[in-house]
Amino acid sequence: MAEQIVSMKEKFVNLSRVLSNGPERRMILALMLGACLGLLAGCGGGSDTPPPRIETPREKLSRALQGAVDDLRKQDSGVQSALIYVDAPSLGRAVLAASGQPDPAKATSFTAETGLRVASVGKMFTATTVMRLIEQGQLSLDTPVSARLPASISTRFRTWIGADAAAALTIRHLLSHTSGLPDYFNDGPANAAGQTAFLQAQFAQPDRLWTLADTVNWAIDRLQPLSAPGAAFHYSDTNYQLLGLIIEETTGQPLQDVVRAQVFNRAAMTGTWAQFREAPRSALARFYLGSLDVSDFQTLSADWAGGGWIATPSDLVRFVRSLNGTELITAGSRTEMIKGSAANALYGLGVQVLSSDSLGPVYGHSGFYGTWVLYWAERDAVVVVHTGQSETSELALETVLQRIFIAAGDALPKR
Predict the structure, then answer these.
(1) Which of 17, 228, 333, 336 is the most exposed place for a label (fewest CB within 10 A)?
(2) What residues contact residue 182 under an 8 Å CB cut-off, 6+ apart?
(3) What is the distance between the alpha carbons of residues 229 and 166, in angstroms, rounded to a whole number?
(4) Cα-to-chain-centroid distance, residue 320
């Protein structure tokens, strides 16, 4: 067993090197290490003396998750509050474990209806909206990007990437991060603190409301394409801002209205809303950059189509269940979304993908402020994790994911 775990760790570490830096890489690494230790699930020792009362699987899982979330905050003192939420049909109802207060000023407690800043988890919402428009015949995965952008950007965009790239670049490339386009957030020169010019602009203008066009024009004016379309994987929020523009240009409606009609309403996601663009629909859990509470910084509107949503744990479960059902897309579209590309087998169309011998398929997405949404197909389980902290230690994140999968593997039956 030990040799098998070591071998898997070595394989997963090698795979992780193909990913870009950032929260997505951290999620994959943590999940991979969790997969290694998932081999140990259900391997506990026995006892000659039976306990006076045998815990139900739900009680056992609840106790394990509460221990994991409590220890996460002990391990990383920068995490002011944290939540784990696991849903599976065999549980009867979802299990919620939390530590700390989502809003200390209001002395509130976490519930399944607390609003979480999901950040890049929202890429799944945008990608699902695109797939629905494709099924409705309004777009295709092979639609040229430059042909569907607003006229105010299209000409500049073609000039920026060149005629050959403009002819080759498709919606599939944007969804899969294989466009070769730079990330306006993280690419380009950085200052001594490691902040790129865009991040510096955000801190300098905390009240600015960024539009989709603002961020795309920023990239066009200051950065250069990195590779030809399809040649390499490079995680870039620019891709999803472009998808947001294409959705608006195709439908003639604001992005938030389209995503609500195409996804949220159909999945009964009543507590999900576009921060800074819609009225709140759930009480917001505060979130932090280190010790700085940035929950009300309107400049965070800059990640709009790539992750500008607030969603509740229960809504995130409804989204995943609907994505795997018939409410949102067909089975064929879902297969496309969870299939990795030639450039990166671990990323599909707006979905991070992992398969391992111990866990089987696991897919979902992570977000910058410590939010993860994962679907474990073998146990029909949805896992939501939230720390509300962009600087949560990688070790703490790896550890909590390991413990979640071990506990869930022990408590939940295989399908």
Answers:
(1) 17
(2) 188, 219, 223, 224, 225, 226, 234, 236, 238
(3) 9
(4) 12
Q: Note the residue count of the chain.
A: 415
Whole-number Å distance between alpha carbons of 283 and 281: 7
Are 180 and 167 in contact, with CB atoms under 8 Å apart? Answer: no
The DSSP string of 325-373 is: SSSS--HHHHHHHTSPPSS-TTB-SS-EEEEETTTEEEEEEEETTTEEE
71 residue type, one letter: D
Q: How far is CA 279 from CA 148, 197, 283, 338, 351, in A?
A: 30, 30, 11, 32, 28
Compute the distance between CA of residue 193 and CA of residue 179 in angstroms, rounded to an integer: 29
Residue given tokens 């950065």 in the structure block = 223
102 token code pair = 């989502």
Candidates 166, 141, 118; CA nearest to 348 is 141
Asked if 371 contacts 309 with a C-beta cutoff of 8 angstroms, the reply is: no
pLDDT digits (tens, 9 = 90+) for 127-163: 999 999 999 999 999 999 999 999 999 999 999 999 9
Q: Is 344:19 a contact under the CB 8 Å cutoff?
A: yes
Going from the C-alpha of 108 to that of each of 105, 122, 280, 287, the distances in angstroms are: 8, 25, 17, 14
pTM of the model: 0.89
Specify whether the CB–CB gap between 321 and 382 falls below 8 A: yes
- Strand pairing category for 371-376 and 360-367: antiparallel
Closest C-alpha to 3, from 36, 33, 42: 36
Burial environment of residue 9 by CB neighbours within 10 A (0 to 12, 13 to 18, 19 or more): middle
Q: pLDDT for 363-396, tens place per residue?
A: 999 999 999 999 999 999 999 999 999 998 888 9
